[in-house]
Structures are given as C-alpha cells and as structure tokens.
Design brief:
It is built from 8 helices and 17 strands. The protein has 312 residues and is α/β, with parallel strands linked by helices. 49% of the residues are buried.
Length: 312
C-alpha cells in the first residue's frame, strides 16, 4: 500500500446552506457537549457560551473556503460532500456534523463506524456512515453497544517504519479502541488519557517526507503522567507545546494549533505554534507548513484535523 498517496486523500463535508429558517452554521450559538467523563467537556464551547459568542456567517464561510484552498495547495485530494439537508433544520441544530473526523475511521474497504458517547451527535454519525457507505463504497463495521469510539480520539498512521494507532480515552473507551485495533492491526498501539475532550486537541504526530514518524507534538500539561510515559517509551522525539497551542486553560482559550492534518512532509493547521522553537524544529525536519485560520470553528472546539478524514 502506498501510504504517501492514501494519506493525502481526504473527505470534507461542505457547509450547510443558509435558508430562511436556518441562517447558517451554529447561528444560534455553539452546542455544549460532554461525553462519558468530566474532562470530555468541550472547553471551547463553554467559553463561547459564557462569552455569548455566535459566529459571523460571512467570516465562517470565507475561512472554510480558504481552508479548502489551503488543503488543495498542500497537495491533498478532496472528496467534498454536500451537507445533509436532514441535519440543516431548525429542530436539528445541536450537532457538529461538519466535523466529519469524529464519525469513524476508514481502513481499506472498511468504515469503522464511530459510537458517540454524546447523544446529541448520534444522528450526524448515522449520516456520516451513510455517506461513506454510498459515496466511497465502504463496508460498515459497527462497534458493540458498550464500546465508544469517536474519530477525534484516533490518530492512525501507516509509515515506512510501521503503523501506529494512538487512541484517546476521553469520549472513547478502551473497548472502542480495542475493537478498531483488531481490525487495523497496528504495529504500535498506544492509549492516552488526557484532559482534552478529543485526543486531537492535545496531540499530533509529525511525519517526514520519506514517511517516517519523526516527532510527536503534545500539550503535555493535559496528558496524564502514565500516558506521557507510554509516549516517551516509543523513543520518538517529543515536542511539548503550551496549553495555548491546544484548547487553552483557565480563562485562556487556546489557538488549537495542535489540531493538525499531516501527511508525509506536510502539516496543515489553523495557526503557527506560539510555543517558542516549535516552528524551527518543524523546519529542521523539512516539514512544509500551511496555515488556514479557522476562528469560527475554534469556538466549536474543532479545527483542521476535525474537518477532514483520511481515505486509507
């Protein structure tokens, strides 16, 4: 399998059209969701609620169009799927369906369907499944009822040095990840406990142009010590970033720079890293950097990684 090619093929869900009844994405404010654990609360949406933030629809659409252009410039091949009309209704606004990452994981001919711990997101997960099944002709595999699995908690890589499965234990659980592991059969399987509501809000791998895992960028303050020990045991360089490059802390809402889409030699995110030295380390590794600001999406707790999903 040519991992380089497959890592650059992505599904992206289009924005919902503006209608007389639904005046845009999150036009009544950002929904606040929580999974199975207290730490799975989306800090950004709480921040938006407390500060009365509602997205400017013109800005949101400009940012999304620039995001798509940036992915194309970075060499990604996109399957842009229209937003489902059945979710764009006044009685169906408390979802984050545009974040297609969370719906599941594609592996070869299979769609490993996510099982949301957030009940308000189950409907969008059903749509994602129908979309992938019909548009990409994938066979749907569903986890057992007690197995929770959300794609934002999964970072799966197929590199020249072996495959890696990093699983977050926030809105997903061990049974969910074990279910996926038995299908993808990774060479390395690491489960991580963090305060991020999804793993991709505190963690991203870095892969060089020759498809080698070169580093792991982590918001270490948000990751449990035992999990950090597992990460370091891989003997891959760890680049630690501040909470600001993640979802933030206290009254400080982060920039979500760590929520990045990667491919061999490429990283796309919504902001340069504010932590000193990180960008220099990426340059030294030969990583091509692309930045697409996504302010309107940050308040929903999502960014570049959330808005995409790999077709392996």
């Amino acid at each position: 399998m040519n991992a380089h090619k497959h890592n650059r093929e992505m599904i992206v869900l289009g924005l919902p059209p503006v209608t007389p009844e639904v005046k845009g994405m999150w036009f009544k404010g950002y929904p606040v969701h929580k999974g199975e654990t207290e730490t799975s609360v989306n800090f950004a949406t709480l921040y938006a609620k407390e500060h009365g933030i509602v997205p400017d629809q013109d800005l949101l659409r400009r940012e999304w169009l620039n995001f798509v252009d940036t992915l194309l410039l970075a060499g990604f091949h996109l399957h842009i799927i229209p937003f489902p009309a059945e979710l764009n209704r006044p009685d169906s606004l408390y979802h984050d369906a545009v974040f297609i990452r969370d719906g599941g994981l594609i592996f070869r001919s299979i769609w490993i369907k996510g099982r949301f711990s957030v009940k308000d997101r189950i409907t969008e997960g059903e749509f994602h499944t129908r979309l992938v099944s019909s548009k990409l002709c994938k066979t749907v595999i569903t986890p057992p009822k007690d197995a929770f699995l959300e794609g934002g908690d999964i970072n799966f890589l197929m590199t020249a040095g072996g495959s890696y499965y990093f699983g977050g234990l926030s809105r997903s659980n061990r049974k969910g990840h074990d279910f996926a592991r038995d299908i993808v059969r990774p060479d390395n399987y690491i489960l991580i406990e963090s305060e991020g509501y999804h793993l991709d809000t505190v963690f991203t791998p870095v892969v060089t142009a020759d498809n080698r895992l070169a580093a792991l960028i982590v918001a270490s303050e948000s990751i449990r010590p035992k999990s950090m020990a597992k990460i370091r045991a891989l003997k891959v360089p760890v680049i630690e970033v501040s909470a600001h490059d993640s979802s933030g802390a206290g009254e400080d809402l982060g920039n979500y720079a760590v929520n990045a889409l990667i491919a061999p030699g490429v990283m796309v995110n919504c902001s340069v890293f504010s932590t000193p030295g990180v960008e220099a380390k990426l340059r030294k590794l030969g990583i091509e950097r692309y930045v697409a600001p996504l302010t309107s999406f940050k308040y929903a707790g999502g960014s570049v990684h959330c808005l995409t999903n790999e077709v392996f």
